[in-house]
């Protein structure tokens, strides 16, 4: 092996405080809020420590979908990350699929679903969502009319630095903006929703809804420790009526 060659070891996915990367140590005390079964062998990459939806928030999201779409059976979780939302959806619905472009995230999601006892109700695909949305070849055969009952997405926000933006711009969100995501989901589901930064531009959200033909967008402020944490924005006929 030459001096220029380096062996890259796979990232350790089950951490103690001592093995946790320095930039993630500040999240250690929140590990049971992220996954209550952390000690049973939950996998998290360095990125997932700050990007996974906390368990109680993911549970509340799944319960809201269940309340408003009581006949929901098939759910798709786009950008599934470490499986936080996938797991809670799988507790309530028959079949839940997870999509992520990152193979490490898919590995974590599969493993964490096993820890939570929902692996038999879940399935995963590794790939670029905008490319997958163009082809129906990967869709499960048991979908009614080739559509999911609900599609959920917690897209990348660009890391913790989003907090320092006065207003989060949904039109330039990377790697895909909100309008692109909505357009990709509309052929696959009547109802879909997003986990978005609390400092988003609500006028942008309203404008996107109008452009896509949704007279109403249901917006739910999600809180953690009594403080606003994120916004759940959901589109579709099942979410337009009052609860």
TrEMBL record:
UniProt GO MF annotations: RNA cap trimethylguanosine synthase activity
Which GO terms of the cellular component aspect does the record hold? Answer: nucleus
Which reaction is recorded as catalysed by this protein? a 5'-end (N(2),N(7)-dimethyl 5'-triphosphoguanosine)-ribonucleoside in snRNA + S-adenosyl-L-methionine = a 5'-end (N(2),N(2),N(7)-trimethyl 5'-triphosphoguanosine)-ribonucleoside in snRNA + S-adenosyl-L-homocysteine + H(+); a 5'-end (N(7)-methyl 5'-triphosphoguanosine)-ribonucleoside in snRNA + S-adenosyl-L-methionine = a 5'-end (N(2),N(7)-dimethyl 5'-triphosphoguanosine)-ribonucleoside in snRNA + S-adenosyl-L-homocysteine + H(+); a 5'-end (N(2),N(7)-dimethyl 5'-triphosphoguanosine)-ribonucleoside in snoRNA + S-adenosyl-L-methionine = a 5'-end (N(2),N(2),N(7)-trimethyl 5'-triphosphoguanosine)-ribonucleoside in snoRNA + S-adenosyl-L-homocysteine + H(+); a 5'-end (N(7)-methyl 5'-triphosphoguanosine)-ribonucleoside in snoRNA + S-adenosyl-L-methionine = a 5'-end (N(2),N(7)-dimethyl 5'-triphosphoguanosine)-ribonucleoside in snoRNA + S-adenosyl-L-homocysteine + H(+)
Identify its protein family.
Answer: Belongs to the methyltransferase superfamily. Trimethylguanosine synthase family.
What this protein is called in its record is: Trimethylguanosine synthase
Species of the source: Australozyma saopauloensis
Q: What is the lineage of its organism?
A: Eukaryota, Fungi, Dikarya, Ascomycota, Saccharomycotina
């Amino acid at each position: 092996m030459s001096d220029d060659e380096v062996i890259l070891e796979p990232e350790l996915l089950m951490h103690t405080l001592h093995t946790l990367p320095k930039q993630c140590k500040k999240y250690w005390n929140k590990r049971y809020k992220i996954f209550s079964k952390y000690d049973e062998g939950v996998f998290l990459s360095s990125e997932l420590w700050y990007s996974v939806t906390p368990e109680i928030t993911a549970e509340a999201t799944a319960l809201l979908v269940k309340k408003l779409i009581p006949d929901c059976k098939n759910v798709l979780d786009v950008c599934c990350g470490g499986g936080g939302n996938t797991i809670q959806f799988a507790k309530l619905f028959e079949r839940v699929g997870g999509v992520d472009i990152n193979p490490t995230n898919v590995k974590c999601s599969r493993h964490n679903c096993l820890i939570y006892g929902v692996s038999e109700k879940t399935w995963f695909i590794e790939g670029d969502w905008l490319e997958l949305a163009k082809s129906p070849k990967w869709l499960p055969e048991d979908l009614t009319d080739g559509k999911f009952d609900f599609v959920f997405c917690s897209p990348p926000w660009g890391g913790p630095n989003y907090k320092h933006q006065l207003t989060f711009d949904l039109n330039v969100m990377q790697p895909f903006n909100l309008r692109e995501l909505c357009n990709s989901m509309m052929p696959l589901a009547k109802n879909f929703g997003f986990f978005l930064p609390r400092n988003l531009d609500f006028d942008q959200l309203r404008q996107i809804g109008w452009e896509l033909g949704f007279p109403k967008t249901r917006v739910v402020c999600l809180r953690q420790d009594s403080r606003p944490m994120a916004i759940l924005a959901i589109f579709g006929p099942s979410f337009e009526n009052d609860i």
